[in-house]
From TrEMBL:
Pfam families with a match to the protein in the record: NAD_binding_10
Annotated NAD(P)-binding domain residues: 7-150
Protein name: NAD(P)H dehydrogenase (Quinone)
Region forming the signal peptide: none
Amino acid sequence: MSIVVTGASGHLGRLVVESLLARGTDPARIVATARRPEVLDDLAARGVEVRRADYDDRASLEKALAGAERVLLVSGTAFGRRVAQHTAVIEAAVAAGASLVAYTSAPRASTTSLLLAAEHAATEEVLLAADVDHVLLRNAWYVENYTDQLPTYAEHGLVGATGEGRVSLALRREYAEAAAAVLVGDGHAGRTYELGGPAVTLGELAAQIGGASGREIGHTDLDVAALQQVLEGAGVPGPAAEVFADVDRGIAEGELLVPTHDLARLLGREPLAVADAVREALRA
């Protein structure tokens, strides 16, 4: 029986596989899936079993999840289709006889008003109704969501609509380590983990990114409607711009503020301070 990590060609899924290997998990027990499995050839060379899995192709999911004991369902990025895609993965896991499915969700997905969380909430409902034990990994924001934008920030500054709201940040690898801990550990079935690191305002974050990068990073705070217009002007499609601007509305209202204790429990340590996490992310 195997541990299956879906979406292993993506940033988070790949880091989960790396964390499993770092924990000493037998590579032959790990199945890493991707739409294009050839991009995982380096993992295959290290003994990880690589299989093709396309969330839109149920036959591929049945083959990919065959023999699965525990499954990490990494949420997809096809907004508007994710519930159907995730349902297909869950159904394939149940058909394979998996004992546990963990899902990467959003903070307080079942109660939050964030537009981004709607498909997460619907997926959680599907998983909770399925005939399999579940774990909900409700990840807050990644540090890299901001540090990856350094060239834009250096030119235009960090523009948001969060006011003095604080956002809980942790590195992708820390969320990946938490997921790996669930996949190899016991006592997690039925648990919901609200995962987040230390919290900062965007103004504080701009200063920390500037200090770590040696660049002057300004910060401009707009209202939500104005931020949506800025995003659309930068080429973000209207529906996506609405969702991303709404994230800042949620930050302003405390919807991405998460205590650190669940992430600390799974990591076995406190998550990195934001300044340290920013420096690590910028070095990557």
